[in-house]
Amino acid sequence: MTHRTRTLVATVAVLAALTGCSADGSADGMTDPAAADDVAALSAEGGQAVVGDDTAQDTEGEDGQQVVQTAHATMTAPDPVAAARQVVVLATRLEGRVDARYEYSGAGEDEPGSASLTLRIPSRSMADLPEDLGKIGEVREFQVATENVTNAAEDLDARITATELSVERMSGLLGRASTTSEIIEAESALTDRQANLERLRSERARLADRVALSTVDVEIYAPERAPEPVEEGPKTFLDGLETGWTAFTAAVRGFLVVVGVLLPWLVLGALVAAVVVVTRRRRRAALTTTSPTGTTSPPPADPATVSPAASPAASPSAPSGGSPAGPSGNA
């Protein structure tokens, strides 16, 4: 064996030994409790896990905060449909997209039409979006709501890192499995961890997309059809008094409208009730003057025709002879 051959064999042996040590270290890394501490330290240091692309790093702000923005814009334009098409061109120029679009061309001068769109605009372009929309039509209202998701993103990154280490450990255990039961158990555990890892990566990607692209709802009306802006609540006592009086008068008007609608029916119901009451009274009066057999009762007897025997006014001291006693007795 030549010197070159011996050198080549020694090099191969060293590489094989290093590969084996690396595999053992990666396989046993998760069995050591310090592995979880390494993951926590990585999260505490602000490290970002790689989730398949560089979206998580590209969507961070200057201060490292990740913010989701949601906006709503109300616009007016003489031709809402044409303005909506210009808004689509604007979204494309800003490297955004249109998720939803609705256009109504109208039915004449009385109905000039309207349009509504749901845009996804890059967050870096949100500051200039009202000015860009103002070049297409008049922006009546533009509202922006923000949500800080930095903590949620960091939590997902840490969980993804821990799951990746777990998958790597289970892959090493599967490679060293010798029996059928060990292989089946290792494959089952590896499949579960891989599914969990894919779910976390998908959730992280959705969150990164919300941060990178802000959602903007745009509604376009004709100038004479634009809705009134929503007013804020009263700030002073007089404002509250005015608001209360307005609400009271509106309630009274509503009550009067309801009464006007129900009044004809109430009058009709009163007439029907009156007819029913009169009919029942007449029927009751007729029943009191009629016998049960249907014949009319005889009139009451005249007191002069009553017989003396039946008269309670007969004197009990009258003589039995029938003639009244004289003014004087027998001589």
Structural overview:
The protein has 331 residues and is α+β, with helices and mostly antiparallel strands. It has a domain at 20-227. The protein has eight helices and five strands. Strands 2-3-5-1-4 form a five-stranded mixed β-sheet. Helix 1 (3-28) packs across helix 6, helix 2 packs antiparallel against helix 6 (150-176) and helix 6 (150-176) packs antiparallel against helix 7.
Q: What's the Cα radius of gyration?
A: 51 Å
Name the strands of the widest sheet in spatial order.
2-3-5-1-4
What spatial form do the alpha-carbon principal axes imply? extended
| N to C succession of SSEs | HHHEHEEHEHHEH
| Poorly predicted spans | 1-59, 304-331
Helix content: 40-55%
Strand content: 5-15%
**Helix-strand category:** alpha+beta
Largest sheet: 5 strands, mixed
Number of strands: 5
Q: If you average the pLDDT, what whole number results?
A: 75
Biased composition (Low complexity): 287-296, 303-331
Transmembrane segments: 255-278
Region (Disordered): 287-331
Pfam families: DUF4349
Task: Offer a quick outline of the entry.
With 331 residues, this protein is an alpha+beta fold. The chain has helices at 3-28, 34-44, 55-58, 80-93, 129-134, 150-176, 180-212, 237-288; strands at residues 67-76, 97-104, 114-122, 138-148, 213-221.
